[in-house]
Every structure is written in C-alpha cells, then in structure tokens.
Amino acid sequence: MKYVQLLGRALFSLIFLLSPVKHFSTQTIAYAASQGVPFANLLVPASGIMALLGAISIIIGYKARIGSILLVAFLLPITFTIHNFWAISDPIFSELQSAMFMKNISMMGAALFIGHTGTGSLSIENIKNE
Fold first, then answer.
1. Are the C-beta atoms of 5 and 119 separated by less than 8 Å?
2. What pTM was computed for the model?
3. What is the pLDDT of residues 55-64, one digit of tens each?
4. Is residue 47 packed enough to be buried (19+ CB in 10 Å), middle (13-18) or exposed (0-12)?
5. Do the beta carbons of residue 119 and residue 9 sit within 8 Å?
6. Residue 66, phi then psi, degrees to nearest 5
7. What tens digit of pLDDT does each residue of 58-104 get?
8. What does the DSSP 8-state code read for residue 126?
9. Are 68 and 115 spatial neighbours (Cβ–Cβ below 8 Å)?
10. In the chain, domain spans
11. CA distances to 18, 36, 122 from 75, in Å
12. Nearest-angstrom CA–CA distance, 79 and 96
C-alpha cells in the first residue's frame, strides 16, 4: 500500500511539475492578463513557482501540508478567473472551460485530502519510522 500512496502522490503532482515552465512564457502571461488577472507579469510566474514547490513537497513527502496549501492557493484563483465557463458565450469553449474548472476543483480536493491525511510511510518526514 505504501507504494500506491507514493505513486498516487507522484501522479497527482505531475501536472504541477510540468506546467510551471509555461508560467514564464509571454503568451501565458498575456492570456492571464486578457482574462483580468492583475499584475500578471508578477503573479503568473509566482504561481508557477508555487505550483512547482507544492508538487515537489507532496512528491517527496516533506512539509506536504504546506505543499497542499500552496497548490490550493495556486488553483483557487486560477479556477475562478481563467476557467470561468459561465461567462463564455461560445458553447464549445464554455464546455472546455467547464471541464478545466471541474478538473481544478477535483485537484483542490485531492490537495486538501493529502494535506489532511499526510503522505504515508514513503515520505521524507516518515521514512525514519520504517
């Protein structure tokens, strides 16, 4: 079971490891600004760093509660500003944003779950107990 927890943490965190690089691109920053994100030049790269640190924290099992808070703090504003499907008139684009919204909601749930239950025995904080 301990390997399943480790695999689950890694699979959950994978998206947060791969996406932060895009948060430094001019296209991503411009898109966020066009969606009404204030100070996008600062906040978008900062959110990429938050996602990366949160993912690493959860994968290795070190300060995972803080990592989960970072991921929720990363996801919450993005979910409601970038994926605001209710404000989109194009039905196809609205459906796409609705799916992205729900994906983010489920990832927030997983981050909260990990933050509450911990990372299991295969983690830096718990490895000494093995």
1. yes
2. 0.90
3. 999 999 999 9
4. buried
5. yes
6. -65, -40
7. 999 999 999 999 999 999 999 999 999 999 999 999 999 999 999 99
8. T
9. yes
10. 2-118
11. 15, 16, 26
12. 13
